[in-house]
Amino acid sequence: MKATEVPAIDGAYLFEPTPYADERGFFCRTFDSDVVRSVGLDPHAFVQDSLSRSARGVLRGLHLRSGDGEAKLVRCSYGKIFDVVVDLRKDSPTYRNVASFELSGETQVTLYVPAGCAHGFQALTETADTAYRIDRPHDPAEDVTIAFDDPELAIAWPLPVTSMSQRDREAPSLDKALLHQES
């Protein structure tokens, strides 16, 4: 497994496994504490694992946590997703940058999203399973949602949106969400 910095988002990393394939399929390590530690992250900081299953066109996000934020490792374990990170850390050299990635069950690449960054994704396949490893217990009172189609972010989602949660449909613009987060 190797770690690669994401230039557009300060402190974000892609962790790329080394799969071993044969006639049975493949095997790969999707988390390695030594590799995580090698880029300055505490592998023991992650306290919750979650999994979502989405159908093609489903969009989830853009989500962020207020307060101390939430760092996460995100991996598409089955299918394929278009994954987006928005840096909303005011002191970051990549503040308001947007980066997108295609994550898939084929590659099992894991994306590290630093605390203070918004995150969202769209399922590109009929079924897409997305695994999250989160560094703090979830507190719904800290949830912040930003409109997926905010014109300032200008994210080019690859498919028409087939479904999203009520919360995501009603999400405020980036500027309104940031004002609400600060108050």
TrEMBL record:
Reaction(s) this enzyme catalyzes, per UniProt: dTDP-4-dehydro-6-deoxy-alpha-D-glucose = dTDP-4-dehydro-beta-L-rhamnose
Pathway(s) of this molecule: Carbohydrate biosynthesis; dTDP-L-rhamnose biosynthesis
Keywords, sorted A to Z: Isomerase
Top EC class of this enzyme: isomerase
InterPro entries in the record: RmlC-like (IPR000888), RmlC-like_jellyroll (IPR014710), RmlC_Cupin_sf (IPR011051)
UniProt cross-references to Pfam families, sorted A to Z: dTDP_sugar_isom
Superkingdom classification of source: Bacteria
Statement: the UniProt record of this protein carries the keyword Isomerase: yes
An annotated Gene Ontology molecular function: dTDP-4-dehydrorhamnose 3,5-epimerase activity
EC number: 5.1.3.13
Subunit structure: Homodimer.
PANTHER family hit by this protein: DTDP-6-DEOXY-D-GLUCOSE-3,5 EPIMERASE, THYMIDINE DIPHOSPHO-4-KETO-RHAMNOSE 3,5-EPIMERASE
Family: Belongs to the dTDP-4-dehydrorhamnose 3,5-epimerase family.
General function of this protein: Catalyzes the epimerization of the C3' and C5'positions of dTDP-6-deoxy-D-xylo-4-hexulose, forming dTDP-6-deoxy-L-lyxo-4-hexulose.
Record protein name field: dTDP-4-dehydrorhamnose 3,5-epimerase
UniProt organism field: Streptomyces chrestomyceticus
